[in-house]
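Ticket #4471: complex job returned nothing on first submit. Input attached below:
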Amino acid sequence: KETFEGHQVIRIVPKNEIELALIKSLEDMAEFELDFWRGVTDVFSPVDVRVPVHTLQSLKSHLENLDIKFSTMIENLQALLDEELEEMDAAVHEAELRS
Amino acid sequence: TDSFDYSRYHPLSEIYSFQDMLVAENPNLVSKIVIGQSYQGRPLNVLKFSTGGTNRPAIWIDTGIHSREWVTQASGIWFAKKIVKDYGSDPALTAILNNMDIFLEIATNPDGYHYTHTSNRMWRKTRKPNPGSSCVGVDPNRNWDAGFGGPGASSSPCSETYRGPSAHSESEVKSIVDFVKSHGNFKAFISIHSYSQMLMYPYGYTRTPVKDQAELHQLARRAITDLASPYGTRYRYGSIIYQASGGAIDWTYNQGIKYSYTFELRDTGLYGFILPASQIVPTASETWLGLKVIMNHALRNPY
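Support reply: We reran it on our side without changes. The output follows.
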């Protein structure tokens, strides 16, 4: 089972057309192995990107060099997935008890 | 299906069982059609809600074409139950079903959905291997014959938006294409995705406005207004909010299905595709209000 330990989902909100174009260019930068959860649309529309743990620092440095602000939407994706699984298991267990 | 837990996520086998139960409980309203097979041989089931007649004008709804968007499959299950529960008591839905059929494909990408439960929760695409590449799968919402190969889709098999080797190369897509063509009387086609709170109409592959732009825009505004009524969920709406070629609703519109829309369901701003199960019923119930506006408009505005 593939895990996502340390993967973060970061949110970038482009402030102007220049930032928009710079963020758009990330889509073609295969070295960061980004997974766009929410693609580039307009200025002020959030872009959400899953970043693998091994490219996290280099991506953040890249954005800082470009003076593009970002926030962390999901700190550790695997923790959220573990929670989801626990919740599902608990629901199944509860259903079994009920039946 | 009364005791089915609508507020949790279910594996594929339970979705298949749910569909069979719903048909068994409502034989005069619901039937199951298998429109094809996925790459890995799973049935592509479509629930048909019909009160009779032959080849009535019809409405198509699909959920889960992107497998990791779990709230969409869960919403599809909720819609199915809602339809059988409300037929006969909700005047708008009753009028729709007395004149039109509704087709609902809940697990549009079953291989991908199964894979999200067993191997990779973040899987989006189909599961067909790509010759010459170690990367698997095609984005089934870039695989339609509408601006296929244009901007907003990737030619790289390793990309999450890989368009595939040719239009309709994916059986999950081709099966819908064949079904829609052979039916020939679809009047609305609504494809449901998550997450980013948008309601979009064609086109995604070109900036050329569709000829029905004004009507589709106004209808979208009405749909999102009703959708917002229970919880205040605010949607963006329009055409080409983001560029994407090879998309489903661009193809359906070009086939003459005027009321072609894509929903992107709610975004709580914290979870993305990992929307907590407690959000399923609120998401589905608000979306249902938007869907009803579009379905009702399709009923009242025959073409």
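Chain B touches chain A through 24 residues (CB under 8 Å). Closing as resolved unless it happens again.
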